[in-house]
């Protein structure tokens, strides 16, 4: 019966409209789940910033280019925006204003600009372990500050969704950078501003 009806243009069109509406509903539901997926968003952000630290080490010994670092910064920016959107999806207040946050300087919105400024200074100098040693402490401090800012919103998110596990790991304080091959801990990262502009 369905095949017979589909021979007529009107029913054929109606069938495609129903299929399209169903597809749109499914995609909309999936998109809503993705938008509010705080653990995945934070995981991707942490992964990208860990890659940044590794890539900067490669850059310092001539095994990676400035373009690669810039491209990764853009990805970090995308992951950062996705993380903010995930928190906002659950109506989590992202601007926390009180004496404690001002004292700790934990405004995560300054993260992209701060990271970009340090990376531009670093990449503006000759690639070498000495250059990296000068700038890596600042990079790590910025990443640490971001993670602390995200953690301050974690309790609100967990309360809102009833999550029992922590989405954001507790970081150790940033240690001084040493170029002696010691691995750096993984922290997070920035928005989609291309440093080459």
TrEMBL record:
Q: Which UniProt keywords apply?
A: Signal
Q: Which residues form the signal peptide?
A: 1-29
Residues forming the Aip3p/Bud6 N-terminal domain are 40-158
Tell me one Pfam family matched here: Aip3p_Bud6_N
**What InterPro entries does the record tag this protein with?**
Aip3p_Bud6_N (IPR056279)
Q: Where is this region: Disordered?
A: 162-197
Which protein, by its recorded name, is this?
A: Aip3p/Bud6 N-terminal domain-containing protein
């Amino acid at each position: 019966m369905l095949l017979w009806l589909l021979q007529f243009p009107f029913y054929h069109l109606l069938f495609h409209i129903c299929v399209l509406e169903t597809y749109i509903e499914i995609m909309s539901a999936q998109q809503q789940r993705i938008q509010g997926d705080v653990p995945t968003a934070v995981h991707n952000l942490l992964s990208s910033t860990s890659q940044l630290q590794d890539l900067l080490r490669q850059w310092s010994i001539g095994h990676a280019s400035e373009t690669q670092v810039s491209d990764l910064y853009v990805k970090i920016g995308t992951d950062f925006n996705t993380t903010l959107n995930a928190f906002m999806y659950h109506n989590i207040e992202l601007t926390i204003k009180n004496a404690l946050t001002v004292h700790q300087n934990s405004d995560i919105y300054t993260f992209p600009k701060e990271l970009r400024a340090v990376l531009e200074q670093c990449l503006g100098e000759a690639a070498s372990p000495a250059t990296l040693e000068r700038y890596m402490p600042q990079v790590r401090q910025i990443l640490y500050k971001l993670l602390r800012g995200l953690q301050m919103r974690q309790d609100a998110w967990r309360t809102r969704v009833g999550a029992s596990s922590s989405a954001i790991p507790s970081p150790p304080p940033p240690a001084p950078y040493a170029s002696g091959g010691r691995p750096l801990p993984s922290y997070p990262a920035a928005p989609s501003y291309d440093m080459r502009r």
